[in-house]
Amino acid sequence: MIASPLSRAGCRLRRATAGLLCAAGLLAASPAAAIVGGGGAPAEVAAHTVMIVSTRGASCTGTVLARDLLLTAAHCVGPKGDYAVALVDRGAPELIPATRVALHPGFDSAQFRTRRPTPDLALVKLAAPLPARFRPAPLALDAALPPRGAGFLVAGYGMSADGDEASAGTLRAVSLASVGTTGGIMVRLSPAAGLAGACTGDSGGPAFQNGRVVGVVGWVTAPNGVRGCGGVTGVTLVGLQRDWIATAARTLGSPIAE
């Protein structure tokens, strides 16, 4: 299996603010498509999900835990750079900068090379609250590994086809089923047939079950384990990491509902 993180490299500018606007602007002008094989995200999913951009020219997806706090993948916000939420669903892009980032202490950025999974999770504190249309997402309470065949709804702002940057920037969702677990901390999701799943830009996006966020998207492969999208989507389970999430949220000044 050749797994890869899903953040996107793109335009790089010297000034931080200009770089954030560049990343957001590229995506805001894109056609309405994201997530391989997916469709429009339900309203309740859209209320919990945002797009994250950076001066590195990368974009990812995040889940709202509080009006000023996001859950995302550690590999999305670990590299040096400035980060912001890009609100692109209502006209010109609006940016809300991030002020602090907390990476899970067990995360190892070399995991994509070593193929040894670690908790690919991070919290992002925002400089200002999100608009009222966004609401905190409830987190899973169950720490048990999901059985094979269990269903998930995965959402993200990424591409609908590997390498097609013009297809990114609109929130989409797709239903996938568990095909196994990895390292006792991740679940692997795949479609029953055809191509479906996360793609570049969907990293950090939520995986839902019964209205609760049960995982965070971290990596993807094409069918047969080769590089690409639409084969298997790797998701870090949050129920196993709930204590860290709650502690880090309090430290950042945005406690979540226990």
UniProtKB/TrEMBL annotation:
UniProt key word Signal: yes
4Fe-4S is among the record's keywords: no
Membrane-spanning ranges: none
Any GO BP: proteolysis
Domain of life: Bacteria
Protein keywords: Disulfide bond, Signal
Residue span(s) of domain Peptidase S1: 35-250
UniProt GO molecular function: serine-type endopeptidase activity
Signal peptide: 1-34
Family: Belongs to the peptidase S1 family.
Name under which the protein is recorded: Trypsin
Organism ancestry: Bacteria, Pseudomonadati, Pseudomonadota, Alphaproteobacteria, Hyphomicrobiales
